[in-house]
Amino acid sequence: DAKTTQPPSMDCAEGRAANLPCNHSTISGNEYVYWYRQIHSQGPQYIIHGLKNNETNEMASLIITEDRKSSTLILPHATLRDTAVYYCIVIIQGAQKLVFGQGTRLTINP
Amino acid sequence: DTGVSQNPRHKITKRGQNVTFRCDPISEHNRLYWYRQTLGQGPEFLTYFQNEAQLEKSRLLSDRFSAERPKGSFSTLEIQRTEQGDSAMYLCASSLITGVHGYTFGSGTRLTVV
């Protein structure tokens, strides 16, 4: 599985867009980019995933660069409840396991 | 279906005792996974089942650890002769084989070995 690099921590003001970057320069053509988040004392929660096109759902948007070597998760209007650790994971769809790094600890400030 | 359920939520045990955790996955999910998470780290893969078959075990899963998934439904994770280093959050997740919708995790069982 390709490795990912994320900043260890980020801050964002409530109501603003939170943009979380992820580098995955060794990604293969059949590997997807998945994002999960983990709120304190809970299990990780699936957010969104994509292969090469930008994706949007009710939680977030995922922007993948044309060369697929990096991506950005966008939370358009961050709330205090978005404070969590965000994990970027690159895997083949249907892969047997997720490999988590240390993620980005996002703090939303009032 | 209310998602992946794990019991108990918290467990405190004395060193040397055996403990067992239970995971009830989403009913239509074929795959079930166990992860361990220590403070400040991301979850680490332990093992996974496809239906009732245990298909992969991590090197982290020492001989004191055993997992079962009888009849391909719920799963149990047992730790024998617990050690202080076993203190962690134990997470269970389930998914479809295709993985199309990602994994669904439970809230975990926090184990403290004293």
N-to-C CA distance of chain A:
37 Å
Tell me about the largest β-sheet of chain B.
7 strands, mixed
State Rg of chain A: 13 Å
Structural class of chain A: mainly beta
Uncertain regions of chain B: pLDDT < 50 for 5+ in a row? none
Order of helices and strands of chain B: EEEEEEEEEEE
Number of strands of chain A: 9
Largest sheet of chain A: 5 strands, mixed
- Output mean pLDDT of chain B: 92
SSE-based structural type of chain B: mainly beta
**β-sheet strand percentage of chain A:** over 45%
End-to-end distance of chain B, in Å? Answer: 35 Å
- Helix and strand succession of chain A? EEEEEEEEE
Helix proportion of residues of chain A, in percent?
under 10%
> What is the β-strand count of chain B?
11
Labels describing this entry:
heterodimer; A: 110 residues; mainly beta; five-stranded mixed sheet; four-stranded antiparallel sheet; 0% helix; B: 114 residues; seven-stranded mixed sheet; 11 strands
Topology:
The complex is a heterodimer of chains A (110) and B (114).
Chain A: E1 9-13, E2 18-23, E3 31-38, E4 45-50, E5 55-56, E6 61-64, E7 70-75, E8 84-92, E9 104-109
Parallel strand pairs in A: 1-9
Antiparallel strand pairs in A: 2-7, 3-4, 3-8, 5-6, 6-7, 8-9
Chain B: E1 5-7, E2 10-13, E3 19-24, E4 31-37, E5 44-50, E6 53-57, E7 65-68, E8 75-79, E9 88-95, E10 104-105, E11 109-113
Parallel strand pairs in B: 2-11
Antiparallel strand pairs in B: 1-3, 3-8, 4-5, 4-9, 5-6, 7-8, 9-10, 9-11
Can you give a write-up of this model?
The complex is a heterodimer of chains A (110) and B (114). Chain A contains no helices and nine strands. By secondary structure, chain A is mainly beta. In chain A, a hairpin with a 6-residue loop joins strand 3 and strand 4. Chain A is globular, with a radius of gyration of 13 Å. With 114 residues, chain B is mainly β. In chain B, a hairpin with a 6-residue loop joins strand 7 and strand 8. The model of chain B has no long low-confidence stretch (mean pLDDT 92). The chains are: A mainly beta (110), B mainly beta (114). Chains A and B meet through strand 4 and strand 8 of A and strand 5, strand 9 and strand 10 of B.
